[in-house]
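Please predict the structure of the following assembly.
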Amino acid sequence: MKRNFLAKAYIWLLLILLYAPMVIIGVFSFTEAKVLGNWTGFSVGLYKSLFTSGAHEALMSALLNTLIIGLVASTLATALGTVSAIGIFNLRNKRFKAAMNTMNNIPILNADIITGVSLFLLFVSLGVTQGYVTLTLCHVTFCTPYVVLSVMPRLKQMNPNTFEAALDLGATPSQALRKVILPQIKSGMVSGFLLSFILSIDDFEVSVFNVGTNGLQTLSTFIYADSRKGGLTPELRPMITITFVVILAILIIMNLRTKTNTQTKTLK
Amino acid sequence: MKDSNFIISLDHISKWFGEKQVLNDVNLHVKKGEFITILGPSGCGKTTLLRIIAGFVTPDEGSVEIGGDRMNDIPPYKRPVNTVFQRYALFPHLNVYDNVAFGLKLAKVPEEEIEQRVRKSLKMVNMTDYEWRDVESLSGGQQQRVAIARALINSPEVLLLDEPLSALDHKMRKDMQVELKEIHKKLGVTFLFVTHDQEEALTMSDTIVVMDDGVIQQAGTPTDIYNEPVNAFVADFIGESNILNGTMLFDRKVNFLGHDFDCVDEGFGENVPVDVVIRPEDVYLMESPNKASMFEGTVQSCVFRGVHYEITVITDEGYEITIQDYNPFEAGMKVSMIIKPQDIQVMHKERTCNIFEGTLVDETHVEMLGIVFECLPQDIWQGEKLDVLVEVDFDKVDLLDDIDSAELTGDVRFILYKGDHYYLSVMTEDRDYVYVDTNDVYDERDLVGIKILPEDMRIRKADK
Amino acid sequence: MGKIKQFFGRRSSWSIPYLIFMLIFVVLPLILVVFYAFRSPQGGFTLDNIKTFINEKESVNTLLYSIGIALINTAICILLGYPAAYILSSSRFSSSSVMVALFLIPMFINVLMRTLATVALFGFIHVPLGQATLIFGMVYNYLPFMILPIYTVLQKLDRSYIEAAQDLGADSMRVFFRVTLPLSMPGVVSGIMMVFMPTISTFAIAELLTMNNIKLFGTIIQENINNGMWNYGALLSLIMLILIVLTNLFNEDKEEASAAGGLI
């Protein structure tokens, strides 16, 4: 009994420590004090200011950039990753297949800062001005491998004959792909997409080297630049709180999806 | 030119996967409406042949005709055939109805017609009321029936079945065999069935085609194949037979097991070495002594097999044969045996000794099977390299367990027990076959070293 | 013409676009890192950058200091994280995947936001920023990355191993040290991979949590690149790259899923 209690206590203690900072920010997002720690009464002023005030155009535009790049990069990564996973899965030559898998793993195993620096050197060497497009390409680069890794297991557990069965029943290869393969790997594609999205909007170290000098900012680079100026812009508190809640929601939904899937499977 | 007799014509089909030749000049003609089975061990090429007909594999040589039309360049989705896969390949994201209707929906058949036909199809396979079930909740046998319904609903000219019953348990298999046969009779569709289970083939087929190593060994009705196998492979594959070395003395008289027997075969010549096939159920066993006895032996073991007893007997001459009888005979008992003339199947020996193609590189060395062998000084040596044929008797090839000290190695491919010794085919690295008689016991895929002494080689010039 | 059509029809050819993509965006950039590392400002080949690194005490010290911090961080993460993973995977908690999810959620929040939240926490309780806060911040940030792989491995652990050990006479302590712990090592190694190298390379955390007083290796890479010292910065990156390759070779068991830390 005692062991049980100690164990649970330990877990809860860790959780409290893990969430304390976020909770504090959350609490203090509901007050308008300039300095964090001072409570000047309950107010949603910061939230209003965040969304309406023109002075924080920079923050909002950074947020917008982050979301747009996140969506575009995730979509591209999912498309590229799915096609590539199918391609790699069907490779016969073992050595080529191993090489493709190794290359795919490089961005995952590599430190983000190296990915960032190396891509920076790429664009600089090619003389390409860095901006929206190049940054999106960078994000696609580190997101696609995760999509490939999400889709692969689904391909592996798929009955390989289903594609041929579709052909046998009269489907052209593209019809077979759409009607038989894609539905079976759909869950991998969705996980890959969500993962890419989160990785993209979270990213700092790749973006910081690749935003270029034309004023493009993502949420991370904005916060970074802002924090160097000293002090924490108060409006960041509601921003962080909202992000926290949204991510919490997404993950809970993802969790519930896998739960209902396994539940329906066991019901039958 | 449309040949309306044969629904499928395969002519001179050959296929290589990399360096390995999987099909070697295969010719097959399937009659409309028949139930034909392609039977053979794993790796014999039967599945590849089926996939060539289905359109998933393109032959390197030869032509494929279905319904009289050339099909070589036609993709699978345009061929009038449908396939039932070994592991069913039902679409997991669709229910039973949508699986079965898949082909019809692609062909843009109107919805009402689809409903009607699906219902009919499911009824035919005894799966009515399963329309809305999730396919993953079905048992193996049920999935298989849905797969059959899904294929047949498209009214194909030919139904191809790729070992469809191999994943089912014994009882389910037997039931499905009966059901398939009934569906075949009812619909009149040509069935092309692939399996490695000879019992299945014998039960269900109008015609059986036995394949091994990419070559058709024999094609015929089940009775033909069972009673008159053309070679040792077919005989060994179908049923459990005793295959023995014998000598055809003259028409209707053959010597084996150390005795002369009357038989019904003729046309082999005189004093010709042959292979003799005796089915275990065709040897009559009686307690010794017995007036009618043709030859004698002692029972070594007797095992009950559910319907009959499987009895191993060592004849007085030292041969071991397997006999099936409804009565038990105790181990150690002395027995008398009879074999009726019509139960003796005599077959041509495919070869009487090894014949290797080689090159004489100098007076005492011949190159063959990928390495250089030492040989006795040859008179035919005239100073330059010469193409020769090297004959080596089966019992003059030595097999070594120590692979490292051997110059030539191979792995054991095929083992035939000849009653008093084993007859092996060993495949070398260069894919040459060496045939060996030995008393030692080997397993398939054993790695062995091969040694041939110079004095055991008979070398003669190869005629061009 | 038929052969070309066949080539594009085969699904294995679908890997070609990605091959080209990866060559341009993954392989080439890394080659450029090596290239720049050995390049002088005038454009010729030089080993000067290496010499600068060896001679500049600051750089070498930063590297060693970073490795030190990383080791401490990894050790603390293991000490704190292993028990957590163990408890989570045991029968009391394994039915509730919500608990596990709660530990993983911080992973998905922007590292800067998390770090700023930590800064805010320290501000709130009036603790001065410095080395202690740095280490706390690192552990705070990387703990979930250590817990997840260990949890994944422990959860999939076949209970029969434990039962077999108990059957053979082992008490709980023995069962843990002789069966559970060794079998969970792949998870620990995975966790180390996800914590050790990233600690050396993240610079934002160090900057924010120490008001840029303490610099880690990642920081000096960033500074050099930002100040236009691309060659030197590339060399430093190359050093980090070599470290990464070494630590990866150390973990021979390269199961892709474990490399992604069971994120998928």
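Residues 57-89 of chain A form the longest helix (33 residues). Residues 46 and 235 of chain A are 6 Å apart (CA to CA).
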